[in-house]
Amino acid sequence: MGQAGRTTVVLDRDGTLLDFYEMFHRFVLDLHRQEGVVPPPREEVLGFGYWSSITSGALHIGSVRVRDRVDEVAHRYMAHGTLYPGVVPMLSALSGAGVRLALVSSWVGTEATVALLERYAVRSCFGPVLTRDDLDPGAGPVSDADCKTALARRALDGLGHAPDHRLYVVGDTPSDIALGRRLGAVVVGVRTGNGGGLPAEGTPEGPDVVLRSAADLGGLILQADPVG
């Protein structure tokens, strides 16, 4: 078995593989339309402050508290999502080299995510595809960090990942960096999604490596862990 066949990669979804901006914008526009309210400019909707107002529960559109409806973005609007340029050939190259891949998201939308991957003909590149939908519903409230950690460990078990195999965790947020540290992985940050705000590589809070996008991941991994 070549070194690539002894390598496992856990990939984040939103902002890492998936460009979700159009999904989210359409969701917000539809809510404004339903409530008869004029929406703010697109650049405001897609800004970090707007998202923070949703997650805090502060944002209302008409009579709707947006946080109560935001899971619709993943469940109902995935058809408007796109994989970032270069992601499809990257996934195909890694999978073809024998690298084990898993997709893990602390947000919802497993069924919609699988449909997205099938639309791009890359579902077969992955082993487990897990989101918050796959947590035990009786577990009660679970933080994003604990959710992603539990799902990632389940994915690694499903892939047959062994302690002597090389592990990468790839994402665009501090929670992805924290996940990688918890798992003892090589942590790869990407500048897509929210990755523009990641700390610099090599700093205590930053990833081990920063890439322009996940499209560059194939070159990084196959150069470090060549086939053969």
TrEMBL record:
SUPFAM superfamilies: HAD-like (SSF56784). It holds the Pfam family Hydrolase. InterPro entries: HAD-like_hydrolase_sf, HAD-like_sf, HAD_sf, PGP-like_dom2. Gene3D superfamilies: HAD superfamily/HAD-like (3.40.50.1000), Putative phosphatase, domain 2 (1.10.150.240). This is HAD hydrolase-like protein. It comes from Streptomyces lunalinharesii. The lineage of its organism: Bacteria, Bacillati, Actinomycetota, Actinomycetes, Kitasatosporales.
